[in-house]
Specification:
heterodimer, A: mainly alpha, abc type-2 transporter like fold, 2 domains, 4-stranded mixed β-sheet, elongated, B: alpha/beta, Rossmann fold, Alpha-Beta Plaits, 33% helix
């Protein structure tokens, strides 16, 4: 093997950087897309449901019914947008999607409570959006349960026989943004690797420039690492921007070691970029390479990595598949470091898998590239 | 070249730049290059001629270590191509068939890239850059994107980048295809200048007239070396008389002449028909007769010197059985 030259590596890296800079599509992917995704997932897509629009049919003029309504309105989850005189109109309002749910308080509510008979209220929910309906139902249950307890106690303090004190750690307010932003780092890196790196070698074969490169003394490792460098730089930049935006815009904490996170990011980038280049070198055309990369790396990174959908709740085959998705490990690392403040002591299995992944990606890229030059 | 130990009266000939022995490349069943052998002297302009698919490009790719030979040997600039491709690539320049600079890099950025790849730096790079810009006629255009240049300029810049490191041996694979005749002529002037400076140039082309610029050419057909020699030598060795025949309707006359007795071959040549005959006297009588029999007008005939194309067609027709007379394997 010929000696590797830093000068040649730098020449390739500089060329790749200039080409990247001149290509609007690449620049868009590298810099605009992460911001769009960040804002999209940070603001538009959120699993937290607030201000559920509620119509109220209060047929009881009493004090207790008003207290119950206040409990709903004051919870922050519900917003009473309409007061209807009769339940007959609820149907129409739900159909037109003016409201998400309706609360019906019967005329006997106050009386039943006072008599200690157990009063009933009716909550009608729009089940077309099952997610929202389920969450609204659990909020309503909680509000009504609390209300009932207050009614029973009526100011007296007694010791309940057993009660669950629930506390949520690491993300106490259960904000989905806190969960999304760390995962987004992995998703953005996957996109960069898939969409950018997959083009870089295929493009050279398509244009015939690879043949010219191959006729010079440049070594294939110099080509691969020279090409990697600019993408690594962009990858790190995007990671920093995403985490900084998470911190500043969404209040995502950074509880763990930045250094450890940086090292893991490097591993993930090396593996993902290596894989992208492998696909690029193995496929003959840019079109094929980018499509394979999209299906092979980007989609799994979104769907079976735990970014959106909980891996534990997936069917077993998908769970097994998720072990092959490097984003899974990186998402575990980013969440662990940012939210839980843990480091290698807890995340060493992930670190191990990511090291293997990086080695595999680079080895595959080098191998595939070798073959093409020989053919 | 000036070693103090040798007497100036009898300078030893420089070792050949390229030595090829039985070079063969097969792609599965298909033999792209079949036991080709030749030697190229230092400073020579050596042409590969032949139609597409003759094996010119495959041969050049093996000599530049872009392809492994299936069998046979090749030494370029003193380096065995199969044994040390890395060293070889430092000693050669290569310009591929397709334009292969980066269109999205500027003229200067392309020069800097190849300077970096060939290890040309500092003052030497500055000098070579100035030379390449002057040679390509691109002074003042350094910041222009290469893709926006006219093809002729692109080709000259590609040549400049390929020889930035002043390699002793330069390979050009159809460097002038698609370039207009005037730019082509200018390109050959550059090749001549480089050869005069001691660079050995191996160049392939399918323009037969470009062979005249070469010191020696090989004619290739379906992977085989058909003939090798200086263009004049190859033409002189052509022993069949050729006549240009004037007639009223060349296409139909061609048909009549192709099957006339004593005629080896007939081909359209502008508005005339070129006829290769077995015997001059027989042809001078037979051609008017054949035209008259076909009802075509005979407008006269004259003997013409063979072109390289005639030589090529004739040699291919005779096949590899008859050894090309006067076109020895060694020049």
């Amino acid at each position: 093997m010929a000696a590797l030259s830093l000068r040649r590596l730098r020449a390739i890296a500089r060329k790749e950087w200039v080409q990247l800079r001149r290509d609007p599509r690449s620049m868009g992917l590298a810099f605009a897309l992460p911001l769009v995704l960040l804002l999209f997932f940070g603001y538009a897509i959120t699993w937290d449901i607030t201000d559920i629009r509620l119509a109220v049919v209060n047929q009881d003029p009493g004090q207790k019914s008003r207290e119950l309504l206040q409990a709903f309105a004051g919870s922050g989850y519900f917003q009473v947008t309409e007061r209807l005189a009769s339940p007959a109109r609820i149907d129409r309002e739900l159909l037109h999607a003016h409201i998400t749910g309706a609360l019906v308080i019967p005329p006997t509510f106050d009386r039943d409570l006072a008599a200690g008979r157990g009063a009933e209220v009716q909550l009608l929910l729009d089940g077309a959006d099952a997610n929202t309906a389920t969450i609204a139902m659990s909020y309503a249950d909680a509000i009504v349960a609390r209300f009932s307890r207050d009614v029973v106690l009526q100011g007296r303090r007694i010791q309940l026989p057993a009660s669950a004190e629930t506390r949520i750690w690491y993300n106490p307010t259960l904000e989905s943004r806190h969960m999304v932003v760390p995962g987004l780092v992995a998703v953005i890196m996957s996109i960069i690797a898939a969409m950018l790196a997959s083009l870089t070698i295929a493009r050279e074969w398509e244009r015939g420039t690879m043949e010219q490169l191959a006729s010079t003394p440049v070594h294939r490792l110099e080509i691969i690492f020279g090409k990697l460098l600019p993408y690594l730089l962009i990858g790190f930049f995007d990671t920093v921007v995403t985490i900084a935006a998470g911190l500043l815009l969404f209040g995502v904490p950074i509880r763990g070691s930045i250094l450890f996170l940086g090292g893991m990011t490097l591993l993930f980038l090396l593996g993902a970029l290596g894989l992208g280049m492998f696909i690029s070198a193995a496929m003959k055309t840019q079109l094929l390479a980018s499509q394979i990369a999209l299906i092979g790396t980007f989609l799994p990174a979104i769907l079976v990595s735990g970014f959106i959908f909980d891996i534990g709740s997936m069917p077993v085959p998908l769970q097994v598949l998720s072990f092959l998705v490097p984003a899974r490990y990186f998402i575990a690392v980013t969440r662990g470091v940012l939210l839980k403040g843990v480091g290698p002591e807890a995340l060493w299995p992930e670190a191990l898998f990511m090291t293997l992944f990086a080695i595999l990606g680079l080895a595959l890229a080098t191998r595939a590239f070798h073959k093409r030059i020989e053919e | 070249m000036s070693e103090p130990t040798t007497s100036p009266a009898t300078p030893p000939p420089p070792p050949p730049a390229v030595v090829v022995r039985d070079l063969t490349r097969r792609f599965g069943e298909f033999t792209a290059v079949d036991r080709v052998s030749f030697t190229v002297a230092t400073g020579e302009i050596f042409g590969f001629l032949g139609p597409n698919g003759a094996g010119k490009t495959t041969t050049i790719k093996m000599l530049t270590a872009l392809l492994h030979p299936t069998s046979g040997q090749a030494t370029v600039a003193g380096v065995d191509v199969a044994r040390d491709p890395a060293l070889l690539r430092r000693r050669i320049g290569y310009m591929s068939q397709r334009f292969s600079l980066y269109p999205d890099l500027s003229v200067d950025e392309n020069i800097a890239l190849f300077g970096g790849l060939y290890g040309v730096a500092g003052a030497r790079l500055a000098a070579r850059r100035a030379w390449a810009l002057a040679m390509a006629g691109l002074e003042g255009q350094e910041q222009r994107l290469t893709g926006a240049l006219p093809l002729g300029w692109k080709q000259r810049l590609a040549l400049g980048c390929a020889v930035l490191h002043q390699p002793p041996v330069l390979f050009l694979d159809e460097p002038t295809s698609g370039v207009d005749p005037i730019a082509r002529r200018g390109f050959w002037d550059l090749i001549n200048a480089m050869a005069a400076g001691g660079t050995t140039v191996l160049v392939s082309t399918h323009y037969m007239e470009e062979a005249e610029y070469c010191n020696r050419v090989v004619l290739m057909d379906r992977g085989k070396l058909v003939a090798l020699g200086a263009p004049a030598q190859l033409r002189a060795a052509f022993d069949e008389p050729i006549f240009a025949v004037r007639t009223d309707d060349a296409p139909r006359a061609l048909e009549a002449l192709q099957h006339a007795p004593g005629i080896v071959e007939a081909a359209m040549f502008g508005r005339e028909v070129h006829v290769v005959a077995r015997d001059a006297a027989q042809a001078e009588a037979g051609i008017p007769a054949a035209l008259a029999a076909a009802g075509r007008r005979f407008g006269g005939l004259r003997r013409v010197p063979p072109s390289l194309e005639d030589v090529f067609v004739s040699l291919v027709r005779r096949g590899a059985t008859a050894a090309p007379a006067g076109a020895g394997k060694e020049g």
